[in-house]
Structures are given as C-alpha cells and as structure tokens.
Amino acid sequence: MPRDGNRGRLRSHEACLNCRRKKTRCPAEKPSCSSCVRLNQPCLYTTTSKGSRGGPSADRLAYLEEKVNLILSGKGSSPPDQNKVKPQDNQETTYSIPSGPSSNEFSGNINEPFLGLGFEDTKGHTPSRVSRAIELYFQYCHRQPIWCFEREEVKDPSYLSEELICSIITLTSRFSQDRDEIQQYGDTARTLVMLRIANGTIELETIESLCLLSYSSFLDGNGPLGRFHLGLALQLCRSAMLDLNSTYGIECPSAERKKRLFWSLQSLEQTYGQMGGLLSVQAEVLRSFYLSTGSDQVVEKPAHHPPPLPNDTMGCTSPSDFGIWNLALHFGWVWNRVRSYVFDCAQSKLTEPWRHDSMYAMVISDLTELENKLSLCHRYDSVKFYERRPDELRVNRDYWASWLKLQFTYHTILTVLNHPFLYIVASQYNHKLTIPNTFWRRSSEVVMLHATWIVRMIDMVTDKKMRLIDPFFGHAAAIAATVHLYFCCAADPRLKYKSKTDFSKCRRFLKSFVSFSPACQTLDRTLDKMTRIASGSEKVDFDWEPSKIHLSIPLMWDVLQIKCLPTFDETPTAGLLHPSLMPILPEEDKENPSSTLEVIVAMSPDITVNTTDGGSAAHIPPKMPRIATSAPTSPTAPLADKLVAPADSLMANTPWLWADPSQFVDMETLGYPESESTLGNIDGFSTWWDFGNL
Prior knowledge:
Blueprint: H1 5-14, H2 17-22, H3 34-38, H4 55-72, E1 84-85, E2 95-96, H5 127-141, H6 162-172, H7 182-199, H8 204-219, H9 223-239, H10 255-272, H11 287-291, H12 324-346, H13 359-371, H14 380-383, H15 390-395, H16 397-417, H17 420-429, H18 437-463, H19 471-486, H20 493-511, H21 518-535, E3 549-552, H22 553-560, E4 596-599
Antiparallel strand pairs: 1-2, 3-4
Helix pairs in contact: 5-6, 6-7, 6-8, 7-8, 8-9, 8-10, 9-10, 10-12, 12-13, 12-16, 16-18, 16-19, 18-19, 18-20, 19-20, 19-21, 21-22
C-alpha cells in the first residue's frame, strides 16, 4: 500500500545518509544502522528535528533533501499544497521551491541562501539510461583528457552516488538523443554537490562529479562556470590532502583513483585554467616535478611535493617507460607555459625571444628536455599510427586518444611559439624592437613545418575515422588555420596553393566539433569573421589569390588565447552568477579597420635551389607522384613520377614545394577529403614524415 506524503518525508528523514544515497530501506538504528554495520562503513544521520539548533536553515535543508529524493526516485515535485513550507510557526516569511523551466527563475526574497537551489521536474533515470551514459563516457571522454575512474570501478551503477550519475549524464548527453537535458541534469548534479558540502559528507565521487561538470562546461564554452567547478574541486583535493605526496604513503585501496582524479584536474587546469589571475598557480612551481630526470633528486620540502603520477602502463614495453597519458600531461604543462607566453605578448610584455633568459628560450628548453622522456615505444615511427586499421584504433581508443593529444600538443606548442603574428604585433607596438632576419627565417620555417604537421595529423585522424571530442583539438586546428591564412599571400605560388588547401582542412576539422561543443562553434564563428576581414569578401574560393590580407588583431588574440566565449546574450556565466554580478566588459568593434594588421606579402621560408644545372629547376614546379588506390606503385613506374629535392635545400622536405594544387577543394565544402598521407617519397627521404615529428 503506497504511503502518504507525510510518512514518506518522515521515512526519508530517518534514513541514514548511506541508505538514502543508495535508495534502500534503512533499519534506522542509532547510532549505527545494521545495514552500515554489515558493510563496515560509517553510519551518519542528518539532524532535522524541528527543535534542533539548526533552526529554519536545517528544516529548509531537510526539505531540499526530500525534494532531491523525490526527483531522483522519479516521483517529480511535491503536490501543490506541499510546495510551501514554514520552517517555524512564528516565522512569517515563506520559502518556495520552484518547478519552472529554469532554475534561475524563483520567487521570494533573493537574499535567502536556499531559494536559488531550485529543481526542474524530471522523469528520473533508469538503469539502462545510466549504463548508456557510462558507455558513452568511455567511448568519447575517457582519458580525453580526464581519467577519473576505470570501467570496473563503475560497472555497477547502483553503487554510484547520485551526483556522479547526474554528472556523467550531463557530460555525455551531448552525444545522444537526450542533449536537451544537459541543463537539467547539470543543475541537479550541482545542487547535490552543494548539499554534500553543506552536510559535510564530501566523498571521492563528489570531487569526480565536479571534474566532469568542469569539463562539460568547457565543452560548452562556459569558462567561468567551468573554472569555478575546477577551482572548487582543487580546493576540496587540498582539504583532503590529495595534493601531497605524503598522503599516498599509507595503504589505501582507492589511492590510484585519487591520483587519477588529482592529475585529471591538473590536466584541465593546464588547458582551460585562467591566465593572469591572482589566484592562478604559476607553471614554474611544478617545473621540478615535470622535468626531474632522476629519482635521487633532492627535494627541500618533500611534504609539499605533488603526488605521484597514476599507474599507466598502456603501450609501454618496459617498466621504465612513461605511460602515454602521463606523457601527455607533461607536454600539457609546457602548453600551459606557452599560454602564459601568449598572455604576456597580448599585454605587450614580450621579451626578445632570442635572448637566453626569455620565456621563449625557456619553453624551448623545457620542451626539448621532455622529449627525452618520450620512450621509443610511443614515438611516431614506432607506433605507425598511419598504418593502423580503424577497427584497431577503436579497440585501443584509450591509448590512441592520449597519443593524439600528445602529438597535437607538441606541434601546437611550436606553432604558437613561432607564430608570425606575435612578432609583427610586438614590433608594431614597440618601435625599439627589431626582429633579426635570422630569427624571421628560422621561425617562418618552424611555424610552417609544424602547422603543416597539424594538418597531416588531421588527415590521418580523418582517414581513420577516429572521433575526437576534446575542444583542444579544435583549438589546435584553429591556430594552424591562422598560420595558413597568413601564408595565403605568400610570394611563392606553390606555398600559396598549399596554404589555401591546409586552411580549408583546418576549417572543416573545426566544424566537426560544432555539433557537440558550443565552445568550438564560437571559435568557428570567430574564424569566419577573421576570414571575411582577411579577404574582404563573404566567400573565399579556389580563385582567391591575394597579394595582401588584413588580419584582425582582436580576433587573432581571441583564437590564440581561446577567448571565444559566447556573447552575453547567450549568458556565458549562466548557472553561476546572479545578474547583479554579471561582469560588464567594454564592447570592442573587432571588425573595425583600425584594429587590423595589413600583411602585404608574407615572408616565405627561404628555399635554396641546387644551381649546378644553371638554375633551370628554380621555377619548375615538381611533378607529383601518383597516389596508389588499390596496389602499390610498380617498380617499373616512370622516373618522372618521383620528386627530386634540391641537394642543398635549407629544409630538405620543404613541404610547400611538394603541394599539389589539384588537392585544393572549395573552402565551403564541409565533407572530408581523402587523406594525402599516402603521398610518395622524395628520393632519399620521405616527403613529410622524417622531419619535425616525435
């Protein structure tokens, strides 16, 4: 016989916290119920009596807990006559819990601390739905980049906390038909986390929930909310001393899970953390951890040393090899330093990059030292990603997602450090700064080489039909696109053709993230505006051969710093701030001609041509190799199909010389082209793969 509403409420109040979380019948013995005694776990109760010292706040908290239980059990909201409760008989103010379409709309006194914790009515989540959400998490999000738990740790959803279940559904709904419920489950998960904090019952799964909510917010482009979740999770880790190496000296069955959580939060901080804020941690603080090369290193304060890295043996061939996820984390630390470098450049604080004490030189030094940690088993030539079958990549997705993150991070670091925009703008605002020709020449070669590598990685990912979801990959493609846009006005026609081709590929790759990531959608719109300004036209097609372009300075900074947040009409701080605290930023006309930089002819990387034949080959475009479709090229193929590189070329692979203009497709085409990773080799060395890779 179903119980009436009052008995249900009393039953919920009498149950201990563990039984209430599992939604099981609680014997309600004091001080510990028999269920908790049998499971050997602490038994806690929430004091909700009317005469408790908590007063009206405790009663309101108990009512909210009851509301959560009703929602999660699929009973919806309370009957209309129970939607208002008076905490005390002598109190005149009433507090209402809304059930409208938005949790931001509530009535009553806005200064009351509990009135904003409203819920939407929901049908609840079935076991099949939870299992499907967990399956989507491991299909798309696991180790890309967060790594909180393994499959066996969440194989039984009945033992998971409600906030973790709602957080998993929030993150993965964008990949299913239930994407309209992201807001609903996100609000519920945040409220459950806050109730845990209010009750003092924080668990490991509560911090994991904040990690998932943070990553979900970054996918949505809601940086303020994502950084709030991230900062709260890091603070809770500090409270639990999960950030100290000494904590892990004691035997703990969940030690590995704790380490994975802590370093997953660090990974998010490296990529999406706030730059330049007073609360941000400088990357130099962790230099000794990331760059330590021996176990005998003397640490002055071992109690404050970060925790060890999680056990990651995937893809390793010996016990001394670094795991691929841990390596990606190390390169992420260097990427965070590059973000600081770009931030300083945007503030006109550039130190001459050729100086030995400059940030540029230090980042290059750190990156080079980290390359020594890259074990042979993970290197490009060893894993041969380009030879792997798509089904093989899907089976081992946990490894390849981290491997691709490392590769994209490495090439993006060198692309940003040598981006010509940084030094053109620096010389514009600092007339005393003179860029030496040798630096221009070298940086032009490096930026073109690694921006091309990003495109080749995109080609391979596309060819293997491997779906990536981390917004960082879209950001890397957008950065590479700005480099190729710059070289679209190069003097060399072959470099111009190649740049237009690669620019188009970067654009299409970025658009593949738009369907599930509003952050990448905003980034794509920014790149659209930049293209229109650069070309002076609404459409850029194959016939576009500019002699000069106009680069929008504000939009370029937005792309390099991934500041492409939604407009205020789309509430970038939705779910976090009251309208009275909404930040007011000065409006900037980013399409104003006065805020653009005119590039007449982009400096092409110097090409040295073999002149032993009298220079007859100096202006002859090379003949392209035929691409084998079903069978390898016959040994008797005509010699004219091979490429011959100049003997004394400054860069032997000079990729722009070997670009085939016929590869260029219309920039408005959204379909992926065939990969060109099967291009033939130049005599004596590979066209692409022997230079600049890891």
